[in-house]
Amino acid sequence: MTHYMLDACALVALMKGEDGAEEVDNLFQQSVRGEAVLCMSIVNLLEVYYGFIKDIGLSETREMMNSIYYTPLAVIESISPRVYHEAARLKGTYRISLADAVGVATAIERDSIFVTSDHHELEVVAEKEMLNFFWFR
Q: pLDDT digits over 15-41, tens only?
């Protein structure tokens, strides 16, 4: 079974119906059918949360975010020492956001494919590291 780790931009694309939403929705459908496992670091989910607070306000965002817990998306709510060290290495080596570093490090720990559209930040990581990425745009 294939394991996927979602970046914030993947969930945002799905929730806003942006370009690539169909591809992310397909991953959710695979998960519903038991063909894939979808996960997301709490740090990447935090990016989604604060982004929507800025866009639509706190009350509506809370309702929307609560609905995520009724999907097949498993939220990884802790950062293990291995993720902590790997995220620090990635952040210190590449010009990527802390959230992306944590998401990628969590994908490494869980042997997952990192689902993102952040080519500008993460293509260099994909080129230099032995990681699997799913680019949805």
A: 999 999 999 999 999 999 999 999 999
Contacts of 93-102 spanning 24+ positions with Cβ under 8 A: 94/121, 94/124, 94/125, 94/128, 95/121, 95/124, 96/121, 96/122, 96/125, 97/121, 98/43, 99/8, 99/41, 99/43, 99/44, 99/46, 99/47, 100/7, 100/44, 102/41, 102/43, 102/44
Residue 69's pLDDT is what?
Answer: 85
Give the domain range for residue 122. 2-135
Total domains in the chain come to: 1
pTM for the whole structure: 0.95
How many C-beta atoms lie closer than 10 Å to residue 25's C-beta? Answer: 13
Which domain CATH number covers 8? Answer: 3.40.50.1010
pLDDT in tens, 64-121: 999 998 999 999 999 999 999 999 999 999 999 999 999 999 999 999 999 999 999 9
The C-alpha atoms of residue 41 and residue 104 are separated, in whole angstroms, by: 9
Can you tell me the distance from the alpha carbon of 87 to that of 41, in angstroms, rounded to the nearest whole number? 12
